[in-house]
């Protein structure tokens, strides 16, 4: 018996109102119970496909078929701002049109599934980034969907959280479609890839684990490049013959005409080689050059049994000192950084006149109502003019057309790159980085790691991405989990 197709796109064409085409006659099917990765370059339209599946958008042409009215739920990348003031119980109640009588036991069940233990009276906004990531997944699970859509589900999760999520997904018997830049995570459970190409607006489907598919795509690109090179050589040879024979008479002129037709046909047969995302340019973050005891940390608060406990420490950061803050989700890492930057932590002192470059995991430093241009201009250090500002932005793929957009219209990845551009332009004496690889394309991460490692000021970093952390030389570590 053939496997049942639960989701099918049939010649779907979609473009936004501003005539920005995203999908061109896209067709693919996903079997019931399949675990599929949705891949594609930045801006290809992966999130658009999710919206079409959910019915939030309608195709311009073609159809999206959901078999037997299968139910759908999405685990979003970030908690919506209007939900941050809700208690956990209130937040889960929003998953239902009519709140069930046994909601408390349902909440308990899904919180257990995502390995999260916090009182349901806590506000969602008081949770750590990792705890919020678990809540987002639990919110989707409580709807008991036939199709589960996951958008960057490992962002903010520590290693234990990622391991638990993998284990859960391997055992999960429903259909799952995942967007993620975490290759190791994807390779553990996905069995096929749906690839959306930003240039052709077409879909390709592949069967196999993630690494096998990536290798297959690369081999295909290599074959396409080789085929084009051979055709290019033949085209050039024939063009030279056409030029030679065209000036001769009779049969030679006929031969030239025939060769010209062959050249046109070969030009038609050249393959559109897959072009992957552009990678950001290498960059440096200029340091303020401030001298002295830049950061003094005498005590920190850690969260034990959901209550803050003050612990004494003795950490001093001068120029070129780097501090890695580690510990499990919910221990208080991001809270420590926020209190440090806002200067309301009695146990931490930052040297007067230090320019602090803060990368917040929830982009709290960005004003979503500002345009990209105004956001960049508002933090310019002395000596940097508008032309230099535009050049720095372009290096982070923030082009002229994006400059007039409101920050609220940017993708999460673009907000991340904008945040790095701002750090370059402000010339900080202290870098405070909270999960700076979240939402960032994996091609950009080695370039960012190199820039952070070569920075001449002080650094305080939280990151759960071990491949990123190992590229940076630290001389201090504060493990909050050891208290």
Automatic annotation (TrEMBL):
Q: Which residues form the ABC transporter domain?
A: 7-223
Gene3D superfamilies xrefs: P-loop containing nucleotide triphosphate hydrolases
What UniProt keywords are attached to this protein's entry? Answer: ATP-binding, Coiled coil, Nucleotide-binding, Repeat
Q: Name one GO molecular function term.
A: ATP hydrolysis activity
- Which sequence ranges form a coiled-coil region, renumbered to this chain? 214-276
Report the CDD domains cross-referenced here. ABCF_EF-3
Q: Which Pfam families match?
A: ABC_tran
Which PANTHER family has this protein been placed in? ATP-BINDING CASSETTE SUB-FAMILY F MEMBER 1, ATP-BINDING TRANSPORT PROTEIN-RELATED
Protein name per its UniProtKB record: ABC transporter domain-containing protein
